[in-house]
């Protein structure tokens, strides 16, 4: 026989101990999952089209609406192999490029990021209201729109 039959009392104690350990573990996992914060940025596609000017052959315009959660902040350094324009539809955002001092833009203002400049910060300083930014890329086919900086 591979195992010995335990007395009933010992078996019940063993089973209860196992259940207590597994319940505690699953509660810990659940608490960890609950603590995970939602992404500070979300994107919804708006419009995309190829450009028709012969001098801009193989270039396209892509746009999306970026929402920055209240108090949301993204510090993942990255680059866009494209020209990028951002129009603040509502709210306020802080944009940091090349790890420099961030600039603040408010509704009705627009910012520009040169191709392949390092983008190091996007932040909504308002803790209660989301910010919306219309993002417009002018990008050549085949180029990556987003490249994370690895160190």
TrEMBL record:
<dbReference type="InterPro" id="IPR011051">
    <property type="entry name" value="RmlC_Cupin_sf"/>
</dbReference>
<dbReference type="Pfam" id="PF07883">
    <property type="entry name" value="Cupin_2"/>
</dbReference>
<dbReference type="InterPro" id="IPR014710">
    <property type="entry name" value="RmlC-like_jellyroll"/>
</dbReference>
<dbReference type="InterPro" id="IPR013096">
    <property type="entry name" value="Cupin_2"/>
</dbReference>
<feature type="domain" description="Cupin type-2">
    <location>
        <begin position="65"/>
        <end position="137"/>
    </location>
</feature>
<protein>
    <submittedName>
        <fullName>Cupin domain-containing protein</fullName>
    </submittedName>
</protein>
């Amino acid at each position: 026989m591979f195992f010995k039959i335990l007395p009933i009392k010992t078996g019940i104690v063993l089973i209860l101990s196992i259940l207590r350990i597994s319940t505690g573990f699953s509660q810990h996992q659940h608490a960890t999952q609950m603590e995970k914060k939602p992404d500070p940025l979300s994107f919804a596609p708006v419009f995309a089209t190829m450009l028709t000017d012969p001098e801009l052959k193989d270039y396209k315009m892509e746009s999306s609406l970026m929402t920055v959660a209240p108090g949301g902040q993204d510090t993942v350094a990255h680059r866009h192999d494209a020209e990028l324009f951002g129009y603040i539809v509502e709210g306020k955002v802080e944009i940091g490029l090349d790890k420099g001092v961030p600039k603040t833009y408010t509704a009705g203002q627009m910012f520009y990021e040169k191709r392949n400049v390092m983008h190091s910060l996007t932040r909504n300083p308002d803790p209660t209201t989301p910010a919306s930014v219309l993002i417009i890329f002018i990008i050549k086919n085949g180029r990556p729109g987003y490249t994370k900086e690895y160190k």
